[in-house]
Amino acid sequence: MVIAKSIISNSAIRIFLQEVGKFYDKERGFEPFIPKKNQKIELLECFNYMCCYCGIHIDENTFSQDHLIPMNKSDLGLHAWGNVVPCCKECNNVKQQKPWVEFLSNKSTGKIFAARKNIIDSFITAKNYDPNMNIQEYAGNLYEDVGQVAMTLINLRYKQAEAGIKQLLQKK
Ligand SMILES: [Zn+2]
């Protein structure tokens, strides 16, 4: 039941960060990042059709979207312009929730590292993405509330199901 609670809470956090991301896009004058086909192209063009971490060629059909700042309760990255970057499927699988600079430094060193980091930093700046959103408190409260409400409802319905099944068995 503890695992169930965290699955529900984490899903709520993802939805929350997606919605806040839409709002943040609109406030900065962008069409909310879905991405639609033209948005995919725009994103890929920002990175010259290369994986932002390893530099391999990617296109609309082969790229994955990575959130530089992960969409979870502690990192609070948004699904929005400036936080979603294009990468290859392999890098996406390996990076997971790691900080992006650390992951990039595993993939490259020296001048190549500096050049790739510079492309990502410039992208974040160009899209005016501020990583300090000050939404920790709301996200923390949401995480707790959703988990508690969901578990209360699950327990309530579970007890009803239990009683119903008992009754059914007694009739036989
Ligand atoms: Zn890659």
Keywords:
172 residues, mainly alpha, two-stranded antiparallel ribbon, 6 helices, 2 strands, 60% helix, binds zinc ion
Task: Give the structure's gist in a few sentences.
With 172 residues, this protein is mainly α. Helices cover 60% and strands 5% of the residues.
Describe this structure in words.
- With about 170 residues, this protein is mostly helical.
- It has one domain.
- About 60% of the residues lie in helices and about 5% in strands.
- It has 6 helices and 2 strands.
- It has helices at about 1-25, 35-45, 90-95, 100-105, 110-125, 135-170; strands spanning about 65, 85.
- Strands 1-2 form a two-stranded antiparallel sheet.
- The protein is elongated.
- The two termini are about 30 Å apart.
- The mean pLDDT is about 95.
- Bound molecules: zinc ion (ZN).
